[in-house]
Amino acid sequence: MSMNLVGRLAKRNIFRNTRRTLLTICLVACGLAALLFTDAFVRGMTTSMIKISTETFLGDAQIHQQGFREANDIDIYIKDTKALFSQLDDNSTIKAYSPRTLSGGMLASSENVAAALIYGIDADKEAELSKLKKAMKRGRYLSGNADENSSNKRISNEILIGDDLAELLEVDLGDRIVVTLSQAHEGDLSQELFRVSGIFHFNDRQMDKNMAFVHLTQGKSMLGIKGVHEVALRLQHTEQADDKSLGLWKTLNNTNLETLNWRELIPQLSSMLNMSSYSTLIASIIMFVLVALGLINSMFMSIYERHNEFGILLAIGTRPKQLFWQILLEGFFIGVLSLLVGLILGTLLSYWKSISGIDYSGTEMSGISLNEPIYLIIDYLAFAKISLSVLVITVLSCIYPAIHAARLQPSFAMRKAL
Amino acid sequence: MSSAVIETKKLCRHFGEDETLVKALEDASITIEKGEFTAIIGPSGSGKSTLLQLIGGLDKPTYGKVILDNKNISHMNGTELSDFRRDHIGFIFQAYNLIPVLSAEENIEYIMLLQGLPAAERKQRVQTILNAVGLEGKGNRLPAQLSGGQQQRVAVARAMVSKPSLILADEPTANLDSHTGAALLDMMKELNEKENMTFIFSTHDPKIMERARRIIRLEDGRIVDDERRDR
Min CA distance, A308 vs chain B (Å)? Predict the structure, then answer.
């Protein structure tokens, strides 16, 4: 039989019960729109979380002296910084880097005492790498690079603290803070007086309450070391952090140095993102199953209503196979209409939230504070794949009802007509 | 080779089993020659429709066999039966049973599309048969836009357009008023005489019995009388 006739019958049949067809289309379209939105949301969330965690302070990768991270010991630091910095300057993959010293210490104001992580940073290099400079809420950022031999005590004694820490210590701009920490090697206590030059706000409670920044020279001097504890790296593209074929991973991982990307530095985030992919897959499967069941139900209702008609079609010479294709085509047409509606709905919703974002301020996931809205990311190739999957599922869902229709005995079908 | 169009041999159709066993048809053996205008009569539940369905290959016999145009259709599979019905049998049902989403023309054309006839021939045959059944100018109407009598005319046209060797009509006048029913029967009788098509009716209608050249009476699933008339 000409497929033309099968197609004509299928097209006309789907609008015989307009309400049911529209409800079926709504079911499949809403399922598709939800899947598209979820896909765009997960992409947006993944990108946001990577961006937040790497751009705020961490960097795309970090270099440490071998053993530092395991022991968390300030005695283990990178000594030959000159050679390392020269190597980093020459590497075109690296966009920026920032050397840091870090140590736990005690901050005492005239009113209170608090423990914090004291970072010694190179002000200019840090400004290129992290968001510290942009996070300044009040006061000013560290004033340029203080030379190790600087006689300008005012500049070198600047300290930046978070607003939560400032509140705890009951200090404001210009107030004095005494920083006490233990020196490397001997463990002698080292004390220095600083003046609060700036107060930052990362919108991350952990960072705003537990971090303080001084000049790198000051950090080195207080710790009594000649090197740095870590060098944070910003790569040309964040994705390069996952590309282990790049030369920098080989040259910067040796008996002295350990260079890790953000996935290795915060494995809990990496695991969470992997879990998100699985969650999306599971949600998709559940959605596919629900859509398929809804469609099978709808198709069976339609078939039961038309038992008599199928009996007639078979009686006058329609082959069972032709009836099978007719039902499948009906499913295909419903699928195409649902795809169009769902695609438009899902794309519009995703586009809207890719512009306005979804505000999760104050929420923390896997140790990452979502300090900026999640902007959905539309991947049109993924959208096309999901849409086609839904179309395939729609057609596949019709196989069972189509087999049922094709196997009808004409006399039975005509007797059983509703 | 037999000259008979239809031959049934010890045809039985049973439904259910044990206590619920219903013997709808028992040992029905008949032979129908080409061009016959036969009525199968009997009270409700006597097995008329069952016999018609078995002859038309719409149902499978429990025992016995049906030979149509020298072919045993009892053991054909679904596709073979569909093809056989398409090429050899026309059906007319009590409730018209047109395809509601197709127009009168399309309903008539449907079987020829299944047969793969060229478009020009299909169109020509549709117009000829529409004229023959008195429905010229109404070909574009959907079944719902036609009266009962008109729908049954379309059903007759659909059954005859492919020029089958056999037309099976299950109480074709039951839902029609007497005038429309009589007119339709006259039309079928005329086609039977002109085209020499074989007609078998299952009916209670005295008008059909009046016109039939052969009357087969069924009671409780058994053939109790087979009367031939010369008219």
Answer: 8
Q: Tokens in use for A366?
A: 């896997």
Would you state the pLDDT for residue B229? 81
**Which residue is closest to B116 within chain A, CA to CA?**
A1
pLDDT digits (tens, 9 = 90+) for A240-279: 988 888 888 888 888 889 999 998 998 888 888 888 888 8
Kindly determine whether residue B99 and residue A308, on different chains, have CB atoms separated by under 8 Å: no
- Answer whether residue A250 is part of any domain: yes
Closest CA to B100 of B156, B154, B49, B62: B154
* pLDDT computed for residue A152 by the predictor: 54
Whether A214 and A344 share a structural domain:
no
Higher-confidence position of A113 and B172: A113
- What percent of chain A is predicted at pLDDT more than 90? 55
B22-33 and B63-68 beta bridge pairing: unpaired
Chain B's closest residue to A407, CA to CA, is B78
Q: For Cα atoms A162, A167, A171, give the angle at the middle one, nearest 5 degrees.
A: 90
What are the tokens at B217?
């009476």
How many A/B residue pairs have CB atoms within 8 Å? 75
User: Do A205 and A311 fall into the same domain?
Assistant: no
Task: Report pTM.
Answer: 0.75
The pLDDT tens digits for A347-380 are 999 999 999 999 887 777 766 777 778 899 999 9
Residue A265 in domain:
no
> ipTM for the complex?
0.86
Q: Do A76 and A49 sit in the same domain of this protein?
A: no
- Domain residues for the domain of A105 are 67-254
Cβ neighbors of A406 (< 8 A, separation 6 or more) are: A320, A321, A323, A324, A327, B78
Query: CA dist B209 to A134, A400, B141, B183, Å?
Result: 101, 46, 32, 15
Clarify whether residues A373 and A302 are in a common domain.
Answer: yes
DSSP state of B197: -
Query: Given this model, what pLDDT does residue A418 score?
Result: 36
Are B97 and A312 an interchain contact pair (Cβ–Cβ within 8 Å)? yes
Residue B4: per-residue pLDDT: 65
Please report whether residue A24 resides in a domain.
Answer: yes
The CA distance from A113 to A162, in Å, is 14
Domain identity same for A73 and A35: no
The total number of structural domains in chain A stands at: 2
Choose among A2, A16, A410: nearest Cβ to B113.
Answer: A2
The answer to whether residues A15 and A142 belong to one domain is no
In a domain, A319, yes or no: yes
Same domain? For A25 and A148 the reply is no
**pLDDT per residue as tens digits for the range B78-113:** 888 899 899 889 999 888 889 998 999 999 999 999
- Which domains does chain B show, CATH number per domain? 35-58+77-214 (3.40.50.300)
Q: Please check whether residues A146 and A238 belong to one and the same domain.
A: yes
Element (H, E) at B157: helix B148-161
Q: What is the pLDDT of residue A134?
A: 92
Q: What angle do CA A104, A107, A109 make, to 5 degrees?
A: 175
Beta strands in A141-256 (DSSP E): 158-162, 176-182, 189-200, 211-215, 230-235
Band the pLDDT of A417: cuts 50, 70, 90. Answer: very low
Residues of B in contact with A412 (CB under 8 A): 59
The fraction of chain B above a pLDDT of 70, given in percent, is 97
